[in-house]
């Protein structure tokens, strides 16, 4: 009897080893090592039992001497997503709904990891739960957390969305570190120990401090916040002098009127417009883009770094550039009164924006003026040539040449026609308000300001869109086998549009979803109808969420939001890697070179799309942090807001004054007990039947502000009407 128990115990141990990593094969030595069996007798027992289990068809024997767990039809792949309370859900294509997995069944996986899991029915039968049995791929190895010192031992507590286990720090770092500091750690192992092991690679600072929190945001998304010395040195080696031989290879636009229009604080000037009037009344506009591909060559360390970053990251208090400052702000930046190498899309247009002629190629320019948006806007609004000091970059009055004023006015007039044609074709026009901040010397927010796109912004936008469209159209129509990198945007998801329609019906608006064309036109009508209404920002946000995500790919499907059959990103190579690739491919085709295979670029474009998403999330988190930081000084004060979201645990409220969003809880609403109505996005009072729903205007009091969690707490005092 005792011998039988021993055999069963060995077999159970073997099965446990194989089941932990069912996709892998093992020989008897590897299994013995996992079980800590070193003596020849013990190993012989393992060999006998492996053969017995294989003969009984309990395990697989794929090749001589190798063994593997039996494939289970209930094994699936998915991504582990963990909530703030540590409950896990696995997102898998095998199931319509996410599959719950308790914290005891995470199998040492971190949030975001790709896992192999076993799904089994729960008692209620309708739902399934999961048990993770193998980690297929770690999403990341670096995490941000807070240092805790306990009896001479160091641990780091990370977000429960990563892991509920604290990371044990193997050795004290050489850098100075204090208990409670925010740190960046690198995961090293998690074998038989209760805690994952890690080492500290950077100290980010004291939690709550603006500098610390911005570095934390970058680290959380795995985004860089500095260039290493090798990259900086390589950038310094670049010769920015333009020789005569290089100029001979290019179209020379140094004597043609050229200018840039950018934000006040911009330093990386990607694009410039040249303008010259033709005798027949038409005009030529050149969209000259920094020729980054001239300086950044494939296979170099600078190119590798730009590819890895894929995009510049624009946070509240800084830009984390894709290229070192020597390139982004100096060598490539189209600064005024400096000769610069550019890549251009040049069009002859009539006054209504019809393209009569086009050409593409490398140019050399010398920009005459650098305008801020508000300066160009003043010229557009007033028709005046003298910019007042309160708007000018120099803080002094100055007068521009009459030719420049006329060029801006003509370009703006034609930009309106270009925009009108896009709208008529079914393009969707989002004009969402954005927030920005005035900061003190310590980078703390003094004020929250709202910016809105004006005609000067739209002028630049239209000519950039024209260049992006025509470049991709030129390549695709020249030969549809030509490989190119497109910026594509699929049609909206029908289910999301139905949800949007249901929400806006409550505000008295409608959507015609009969076809793609009627959908686009009715969305534009909706966006126009809500202008300057209290619900504008809410409906803008909900409409944007109903749209598909744009992405980079070599497989063109057109751009739904812009109503373009062909579209690419060509106009911002200083801050977007796909634009550099577009420049290289266009130049190759202009030189008559054979197209490369699309497979060579598809993986790169997928990477760029992923990095763009991370950069956008980091930007939003930096805004959220600054908003919460700002609201700390307004705790106890009252504000008017709009219900911007309704979930079971509470209501999201967006303040009208500064667009800060916080959460109010139903249990805090006075004089009643409120019940969640998920179908109507509302809470209903049990006694009074009073309804608080999506879009309602309410008065709130700020009750809490936690910059570290980037979270605001509100209390609803009642409706404003």
Written description of the protein model:
The longest helix has 33 residues, at 599-631. It is built from 17 helices and 35 strands. The protein is globular and about 100 Å long. Strand 32 and strand 33 (691-693) form a beta hairpin. Helices cover 32% and strands 28% of the residues. Helix 1 packs across helix 3 (40-55) and helix 11 packs across helix 12. It folds into six domains: 2-69, Orthogonal Bundle (Arc Repressor Mutant, subunit A), CATH 1.10.10; 75-137, OB fold (Dihydrolipoamide Acetyltransferase, E2P), CATH 2.40.50; 142-207, OB fold (Dihydrolipoamide Acetyltransferase, E2P); 231-451, no CATH class; 466-623, no CATH class; 635-719, Nucleic acid-binding proteins (OB fold (Dihydrolipoamide Acetyltransferase, E2P), Beta Barrel), CATH 2.40.50.140. The strands form ten sheets. Strands 13-20-19-16-15-14-21 form a seven-stranded mixed β-sheet. It has a five-stranded antiparallel β-sheet with strand order 5-4-3-6-7, with no helix packed on it. It has 721 residues and is an alpha+beta fold.
């Amino acid at each position: 009897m005792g011998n039988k128990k021993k055999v069963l115990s060995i077999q159970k141990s073997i099965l446990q080893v194989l089941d932990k990593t069912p996709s892998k094969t093992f020989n008897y030595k590897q299994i013995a090592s996992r079980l800590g069996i070193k003596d020849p007798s013990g190993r012989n027992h393992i060999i006998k039992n492996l053969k017995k289990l294989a003969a009984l068809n309990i395990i697989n024997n794929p090749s001589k001497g190798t063994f593997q767990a039996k494939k289970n039809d209930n094994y699936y792949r998915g991504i582990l997503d963990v909530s703030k309370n540590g409950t896990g859900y696995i997102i898998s294509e095998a199931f319509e709904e996410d599959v719950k997995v308790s914290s005891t069944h995470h199998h040492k996986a971190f949030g975001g990891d790709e896992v192999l899991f076993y799904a089994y029915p729960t008692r209620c039968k309708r739902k399934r739960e999961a048990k993770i049995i193998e980690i297929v791929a770690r999403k990341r190895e670096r995490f941000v957390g807070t240092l805790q010192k306990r009896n001479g031992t160091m641990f780091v507590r990370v977000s429960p969305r990563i892991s509920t286990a604290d990371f044990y720090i193997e050795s004290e770092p050489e850098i100075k570190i204090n208990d409670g500091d925010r740190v960046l750690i690198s995961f090293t192992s998690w074998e038989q120990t209760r805690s994952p092991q890690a080492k500290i690679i950077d100290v980010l600072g004291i939690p709550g401090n603006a500098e610390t929190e911005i570095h934390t945001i970058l680290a959380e998304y795995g985004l860089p916040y500095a260039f290493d010395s090798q990259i900086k040195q390589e950038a310094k080696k670049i010769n920015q002098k333009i020789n005569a031989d290089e100029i001979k290879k290019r179209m020379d636009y140094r004597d043609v009127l050229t200018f840039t229009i950018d934000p006040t604080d911009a330093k990386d000037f990607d694009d410039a417009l040249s303008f010259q009037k033709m005798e027949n009344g038409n005009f030529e506009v050149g969209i000259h883009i920094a020729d980054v591909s001239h300086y950044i060559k494939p296979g170099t360390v600078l190119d590798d770094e730009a590819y890895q970053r894929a995009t510049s990251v624009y946070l509240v208090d800084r830009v984390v550039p894709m290229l070192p400052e020597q390139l982004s702000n100096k060598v490539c930046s189209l600064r005024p009164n400096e000769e610069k190498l550019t890549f251009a899309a040049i069009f002859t247009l009539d006054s209504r924006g019809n393209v009569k002629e086009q050409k593409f190629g490398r140019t050399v320019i010398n920009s005459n003026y650098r305008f801020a948006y508000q300066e160009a806007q003043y010229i557009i609004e007033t028709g005046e040539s003298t910019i007042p000091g309160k708007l000018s970059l120099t803080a002094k009055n100055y007068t521009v040449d009459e030719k420049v004023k006329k060029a801006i006015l003509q370009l703006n007039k034609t930009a309106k026609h270009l925009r009108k044609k896009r709208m008529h074709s079914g393009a969707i026009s989002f004009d969402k308000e954005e927030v920005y901040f005035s900061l003190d010397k310590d980078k703390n927010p003094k004020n929250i300001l709202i910016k809105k796109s004006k005609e000067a912004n739209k002028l630049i936008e239209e000519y950039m869109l024209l260049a992006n469209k025509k470049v991709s159209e030129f390549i695709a129509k020249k030969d549809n086998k030509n490989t190119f990198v497109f910026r594509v945007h699929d049609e909206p998801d029908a289910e999301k549009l139905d949800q949007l329609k249901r929400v806006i019906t409550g505000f008295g608006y409608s959507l015609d979803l009969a076809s793609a064309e009627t959908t686009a036109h009715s969305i534009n009508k909706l966006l126009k109808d809500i202008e300057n209404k209290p619900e504008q920002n809410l409906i803008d946000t909900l409409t944007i969420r109903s749209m598909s995500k744009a992405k980079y790919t070599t497989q063109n499907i057109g751009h739904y939001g812009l109503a373009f059959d062909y579209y690419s990103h060509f106009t911002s190579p200083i801050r977007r890697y796909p634009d550099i690739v577009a420049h290289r491919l266009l130049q190759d085709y202009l030189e008559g070179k054979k197209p490369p295979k699309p497979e060579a670029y598809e993986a790169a474009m997928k990477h760029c799309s992923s990095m763009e998403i991370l950069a956008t999330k980091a930007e939003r988190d930096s805004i959220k942090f600054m908003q919460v930081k700002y609201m700390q000084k307004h705790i106890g004060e009252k504000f008017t807001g709009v219900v911007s979201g309704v979930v079971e645990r509470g209501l999201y409220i967006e303040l009208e004054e500064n667009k800060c969003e916080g959460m109010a809880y139903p249990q805090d609403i006075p004089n009643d007990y409120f019940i969640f109505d998920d179908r109507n996005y509302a809470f209903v009072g049990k006694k009074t039947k009073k309804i608080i729903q999506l879009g309602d205007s309410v008065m709130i009091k700020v009750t809490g502000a936690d910059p570290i969690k980037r979270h605001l707490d509100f209390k609803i005092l009642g409706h404003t009407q």
